[in-house]
Known about the structure:
The chain is 85% helix and 0% strand. By secondary structure, the chain is mainly alpha-helical. It has one domain.
Amino acid sequence: MENMSTINSDISDLLNDISVYLEQTRNGIMVDMASLPEKIIRVQGRVQSAPRDDRIELTKFMNQVMQSLNTLSNEIQQRHDALGRDIHAMESDLHKE
């Protein structure tokens, strides 16, 4: 069986990655998150394979990951919507000329 502290460390790394992606998104930087789903699935599999007592505690930490992902998703959607509005406004200005 895998050590709970090792899995918890990987969850912390995942939370840190999400935090960095969120900050970059807020700063208007395009972010390549292609590796994120694989990391999440790998860590989730390790959590599910952990002993029952550890799994309960690790699941709480994974819930934090899910909350962070929701925050990131909302921020990306807001940036997408704002960009769409800006493009629409620019197109409208071009058609007026």
